[in-house]
Amino acid sequence: MAEHDGILSDAEREALAMVSDLPASKQLVLVVDDNPVNSLALCRYLKSKGVEAVSADGGDAAMDVLEREPRVGLMITDLRMQPMDGLELIQWVHRSGWAALPIIVVSGDTDVEEAVDVMHLGVVDFLLKPVDLDRLMVHVRYVLRMDQG
Hints:
Elements lengths: L9 H12 L6 E5 L3 H13 L4 E4 L2 H10 L3 E7 L7 H10 L7 E5 L4 H8 L5 E4 L4 H11 L6
Parallel strand pairs: 1-2, 1-3, 3-4, 4-5
């Protein structure tokens, strides 16, 4: 990680080390959506592909999961949520001990400016709903370092 010494803060280096040191098979994907039907459906899909996943019904619930579950290796979050939207959640993650947590954003209703703002936060990808599940799985497998075969 020496190549990142001048780029990352101490909190980001610590979070990166924590995420990097976990075996891929033990990592969880945290799926965040204030619509429980959406989050549970995506969790079921991920589990059908051999990915351990847990859902959170909104930003506050996601913060609770992150505070108690160190195995989270990727967060997939909706952008439009109440009362805390996905942008606020991502900003909280970046200020927390989870600063290096890879994040994929999904949204069914956005504009170009908002998508650009989110991408500037360093997310892995921004996917529009309905989500291209093949593209999503490429990212999930890459982030969790899962065997592509």
